[in-house]
Structure formats: C-alpha cells, structure tokens
Design goal:
191 residues; mainly alpha
C-alpha cells in the first residue's frame, strides 16, 4: 500500500510538471487530480472483471514513473502475486514505449532483462510451488513466466509491437526457449 501511494505521488508530480511545461494553469482541485492520476495509471477499480491486455503507450509518464512501476513489479514478484505483477509489468512496458517518457532503449532493455531473469529465478528456485499446489494456477510461477514472456514478445515484436525492438525481441525468444527447455516443455519449443 505504501509503494502504491509513493507511485501515485510520483505520477501526480509528473502530471503537474507536464501541465506546467505545456502552459496549463495548475488547479488545487483534488478530485480532478485524482481522476487524472487514475487515468494516467490506467487503474482497474477492483471490479474483478478479466480485462484484455492493452498495450498502448501511456501519456504523462516519465523516467521516474518507469522506475517506480519497475519497483512495484519487483515487489509483486517477491510476493508471488501474479495478477498484480502482470498488470504492473504491462503498465511498465506501456510507459517504456511512450515517446514522451524519455527512457533510453538501453534502460528499457536492462529493465526488461532484469524482470525476465527474476521470473526465470522464480521457476528455477521453486518459489511459489506451495501456492500452485494448493491454490490452483493463479500464482503458479510457470503461468506467470509464460504471460510475462508473451507480453514482452508482443510489446517488442519487430513489425507489430508498440515499441519495435528486434534485438530485444530476439533475445527474449532465446531466453523463453531456454526456460521452456529447462522446464522440460520441449513440445512448446517446436512452435
């Protein structure tokens, strides 16, 4: 909860900076500010409905938003909270693809590679096995890994991705293949 509050403060600050840079007069209306933060964060108000993955670049985000979202993903991966980790990872990719975010391609690649390593370590270390054996697939590290890799491949696809990066897409494919091989899922490697 504290991390989320910190993130909301960073987003508010960046929205204010963007408005100020654009010459828009800042208002003290908290309700409008909260609505703008929720729009910028793409908040799912806990309705519980399954939503489709929306990989479109977000507006009003900068390097600090990217860094704070990356920290949220790390936190959710540590606690093996798959749905939250996946939602924030998707948001991280959307912020990284935003041209107004001013995030270097090297920083994006480093962040994505770090997340993929963390997901692979979840599987290799056996973390979350107790959750998957008692609670179904929701927090299964293998399902999380598949979803994270699929999101990454979709985002950086050289022709259809929101942030085309052939090098990162190819490296992600290689890592995904290696992970599938280590999980003894050789049938999926032939696709």
């Amino acid at each position: 909860e504290e991390a989320r509050e910190e993130f909301e403060n960073v987003v508010r600050m960046e929205i204010g900076m963007n408005k100020k840079a654009a010459g828009v007069e800042l208002e003290d209306d908290h309700d409008e500010d909260t609505a703008a933060v929720e729009d910028a964060m793409d908040v799912d108000n806990g309705s519980g409905n399954s939503r489709s993955i929306n990989l479109t670049p977000l507006k009003y985000h900068g390097p600090w938003s990217y860094k704070s979202i990356k920290q949220l993903v790390k936190l959710h991966l540590r606690t093996v909270s798959s749905s939250k980790a996946l939602k924030d990872y998707e948001r991280m990719l959307r912020v990284a693809s935003s041209p107004s975010a001013s995030i270097s391609p090297n920083a994006v690649e480093k962040g994505v590679n770090g997340m993929l390593e963390r997901v692979a370590n979840l599987i290799n270390s056996g973390a979350g096995e107790e959750q998957s054996s008692s609670g179904g697939d929701e927090n299964d590290p293998k399902v999380l890994a598949k979803n994270v890799y699929d999101l990454t491949l979709k985002a950086f696809h050289p022709t259809t991705g929101i942030s085309p990066n052939e090098r990162l897409w190819f490296k992600t494919n290689l890592k995904y293949g290696q992970l599938l091989y280590e999980m003894n899922e050789t049938g999926k490697l032939q696709m």
